[in-house]
Design the sequence.
């Protein structure tokens, strides 16, 4: 089986051995769990609990509204003490509605009915279960898995290529729970009816590879080692490496018949089906020189980061930056009060030496290192010039939206230019403009429609008057806005108009009374 | 609750810096400078000290006038690189004011008037060189001969540079570089093999010069290894020169120089690895770099063959600088996922 290459990429120091040295431990239950009702870029779930209500682990606390939304469940038993806006680590919204649970330590659990014979069950039922258990992509985007799985595909790729430095939660999962990974893979393959099933790991994950190879009994699953090049674990790059095809610009993997799921998602889906467990826990890597005892923990969702840091021995004096996610794409957090969410794969505390810039920022010297590193084959230096000059349209044409924000360009830049910040700025500016443009178009269309309607009304009135063989009212033709004709009308016409007006009022009333759906 | 300072990703600082890039270029020039000293004496070292001082002073004054950080932009070493490249193009015993004018042209006009590092359209060293070449052709033609047994001492060099007193023996000062010689002698209808019997010539190019060119190539390979430059530009320059001169030479070896003689003469090797590879004024796409390099090579050959100047590297680079933005535009790589349907 030949692997394909993608352009650019980086060979980065892995920094993973510190967190993979020990096995995955369970994080002690915190006294308070903070669960945002929206944990991804889609629509928020609707809260179904009230303050003071007792909830058990696995109990629904927010139900999904529509396909682009995911259910949220209590991750331990206790009392709901608040439903309020809290700071969350999402880049899109600084605060979000959160359900706060004071845990009682009993950890009472509620499960859905296990479906052990899932091979004999229709895919609709399985999809329903995956949605009900609140399963989302655990690799980073937290997109609802049921929606992604609802379209059948030719190829299923299980993504175990954890390409960012420091992060090791998937590696530990594959190493310690290989059988569950394989079972989850089979489940997902069954649901999306894939003919080809690929389980991709990085070539440096020897233990995980050995564990998976031992666990595979099903010849239909191809276990593939991909070269450790950042960002080989990016969806588009991994699909390219394995299939040789490129996901079209602006399109989705489904456009070329591929689906890509994270290995942890497969395990969570399998547990939801076979054990009836909702998604209430995930493996999180806590690492970096800023914590005393780096490692991987099974963490209940909603656990405050500060609590997890305590489990990892607390901060070291050098702790300088707190990052949710990896060092290349993660979000720097202002404080550690925010909770672990479904997409939180890593809490990285970097030391001051790790984040100190090599040199001050200088103008771009057009060295082209960024273009060499860009996995999307963009020209980052050109995009930078265009965005600095405010030429947003030109940047769009150059493929700004094909940027996956992997940070490879900014990492190699000898002038230390925060390139990814510029691209995010450019994208948000373009979205804003498109939005404004759409609104302006709508307003213009409405204005034209109104003018046309008024002109039509006037023309009809003129025609009506002409049909009766009378002199047309000159005002009606020239001033369409003037709804009431100034000239006195014959009695029968005004009576007809009156009836029409009354009917219109009645229609309007009826419309107002029907509740909005 | 512990608070932290935030910043956009990535959270790992770049492993390199612009200063480091410039330092690498300077390191890579050391073999060439050493070879120069070996064949022509320490005059060039004096010129380097002069040029670097002028460049830094010009740069500092301009930075101050522009109201930007003097220490930040002086420490990036780009002015030093410009100064050294300029010196490697001029005769080592040129008077001090040649260097001053060159640096004014390079740093003040070509670089700072256009906005400083990263914003200049034309290669500063080549602008400086072109200005002095056009304004002071006599001073720019007083080259040292590599044939004299004794090299020029530092005292002689000081005398020449500051007091305009050139060495007495005209064996030492020859107004002809190997390329000049090829030019003048071929105008006298001498055949190439006869010209090459002239003691000025070595195995490939000019005596001494060919070894300096080798040293430049050595430095160039260091830059390639350090990934400071990419292979496209040197290949474009050298490849186009060889490809274009081979048919001429094959058709009439008596009238056209051996292709390698082109490569090892004049400023071609320096240009291939150090001047045409300047990222700011060159192309940044892979295909663009190849075309840029090829353009430099072709224009150099054209000027050598038909132009009024024995070596046209500087003009070739400046002309290609004009084309770089357009080349970049038309050689942009295909974006991932665009224009290709499986």
Sequence:
């Amino acid at each position: 089986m030949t692997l394909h290459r993608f352009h650019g990429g980086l060979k980065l120091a892995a920094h993973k051995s510190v967190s993979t040295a020990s096995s995955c431990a369970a994080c002690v239950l915190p006294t308070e769990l903070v669960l945002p009702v929206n944990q991804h870029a889609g629509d928020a779930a609707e809260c179904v609990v009230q303050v003071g209500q007792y909830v058990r682990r696995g109990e629904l606390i927010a139900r999904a509204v529509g396909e682009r939304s995911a259910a949220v469940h209590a991750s331990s038993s206790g009392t709901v003490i608040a439903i309020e806006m809290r700071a969350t680590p999402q880049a899109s919204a600084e605060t979000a509605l959160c359900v706060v649970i004071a845990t009682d330590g009993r950890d009472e659990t509620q499960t859905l009915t296990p479906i052990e014979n899932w091979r004999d069950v229709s895919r609709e039922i399985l999809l329903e279960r995956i949605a009900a258990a609140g399963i989302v992509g655990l690799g980073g985007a937290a997109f609802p898995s049921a929606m992604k799985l609802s379209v059948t595909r030719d190829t299923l790729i299980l993504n175990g290529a954890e390409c960012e430095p420091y992060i090791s939660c998937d590696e530990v999962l594959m190493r310690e729970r290989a059988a569950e990974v394989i079972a989850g893979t089979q489940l997902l393959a069954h649901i999306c009816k894939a003919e080809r099933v690929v389980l991709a790991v990085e070539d440096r994950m020897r233990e995980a590879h050995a564990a998976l190879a031992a666990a595979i009994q099903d010849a239909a699953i191809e276990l593939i080692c991909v070269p450790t090049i950042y960002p080989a674990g990016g969806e588009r790059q991994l699909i390219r490496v394995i299939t040789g095809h490129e996901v079209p610009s602006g399109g989705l993997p489904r456009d070329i018949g591929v689906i890509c799921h994270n290995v942890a998602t497969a395990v969570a889906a399998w547990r939801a089906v076979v054990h009836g467990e909702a998604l209430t826990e995930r493996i999180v890597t806590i690492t970096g020189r800023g914590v005393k005892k780096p490692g991987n923990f099974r963490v209940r969702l909603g656990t405050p980061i500060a609590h997890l840091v305590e489990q990892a021995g607390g901060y070291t004096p050098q702790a300088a930056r707190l990052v949710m996610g990896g060092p290349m794409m993660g979000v720097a957090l202002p404080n550690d009060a925010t909770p672990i969410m479904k997409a939180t794969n890593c809490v990285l505390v970097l030391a001051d030496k790790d984040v100190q810039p090599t040199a001050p920022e200088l103008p771009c010297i057009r060295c082209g290192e960024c273009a060499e590193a860009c996995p999307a084959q963009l020209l980052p230096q050109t995009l930078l010039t265009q965005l600095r000059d405010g030429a947003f349209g030109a940047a769009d044409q150059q493929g700004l939206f094909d940027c996956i924000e992997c940070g490879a360009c900014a990492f190699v830049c000898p002038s230390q230019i925060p390139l990814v910040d510029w691209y995010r700025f450019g994208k948000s500016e373009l979205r804003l403009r498109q939005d404004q443009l759409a609104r302006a178009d709508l307003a213009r269309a409405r204005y034209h429609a109104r003018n046309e309607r008024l002109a039509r009304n006037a023309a009809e009135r003129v025609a009506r008057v002409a049909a009766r063989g009378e002199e047309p009212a000159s005002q009606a033709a020239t001033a369409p806005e003037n709804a009431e004709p100034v000239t006195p009308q014959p009695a029968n016409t005004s009576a007809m108009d009156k009836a029409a007006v009354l009917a219109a009022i009645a229609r309007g009333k009826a419309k107002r009374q029907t509740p909005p759906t | 609750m512990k608070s932290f300072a935030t910043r956009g990703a990535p959270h790992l600082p770049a492993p390199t810096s612009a200063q480091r890039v410039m330092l690498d270029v300077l390191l890579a020039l050391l073999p060439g400078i050493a070879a120069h000293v070996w064949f022509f004496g320490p005059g060039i070292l004096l010129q380097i000290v002069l040029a670097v001082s002028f460049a830094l002073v010009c740069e500092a004054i301009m930075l101050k006038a522009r109201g930007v950080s003097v220490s930040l932009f002086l420490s990036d070493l780009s002015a030093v690189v410009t100064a050294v490249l300029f010196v490697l193009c001029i005769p080592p015993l040129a008077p001090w004011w040649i260097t001053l004018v060159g640096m004014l042209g390079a740093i003040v006009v070509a670089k700072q008037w256009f906005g400083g590092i990263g914003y200049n359209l034309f290669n500063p060293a080549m602008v400086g060189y072109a200005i002095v070449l056009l304004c002071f052709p006599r001073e720019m033609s007083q080259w040292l001969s590599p044939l004299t047994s004794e090299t020029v001492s530092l005292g002689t060099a000081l005398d020449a540079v500051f007091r305009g007193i050139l060495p007495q023996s005209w064996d030492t000062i020859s107004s002809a570089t190997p390329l000049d010689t090829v030019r003048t002698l071929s105008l006298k209808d001498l055949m190439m093999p006869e010209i090459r019997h002239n003691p000025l010539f070595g195995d490939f190019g000019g005596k001494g010069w060919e070894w300096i060119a080798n040293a430049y190539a050595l430095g160039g390979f260091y830059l390639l290894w350090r990934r400071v430059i990419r292979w496209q530009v040197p290949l474009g320059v050298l490849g186009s020169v060889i490809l274009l001169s081979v048919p001429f030479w094959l058709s009439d070896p008596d009238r056209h120089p051996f292709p390698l003689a082109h490569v090892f003469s004049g400023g071609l090797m320096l240009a291939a690895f150090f001047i045409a590879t300047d990222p700011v004024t060159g192309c940044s796409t892979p295909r663009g770099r190849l075309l840029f390099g090829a353009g430099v090579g072709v224009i150099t050959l054209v000027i050598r063959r038909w132009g009024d100047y024995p070596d046209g590297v500087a003009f070739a680079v400046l002309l290609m600088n004009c084309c770089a933005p357009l080349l970049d535009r038309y050689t942009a790589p295909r974006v991932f996922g665009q224009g290709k349907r499986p």
In short: Chain A touches chain B through 75 residues (CB under 8 Å). The mean pLDDT of chain A is 88.
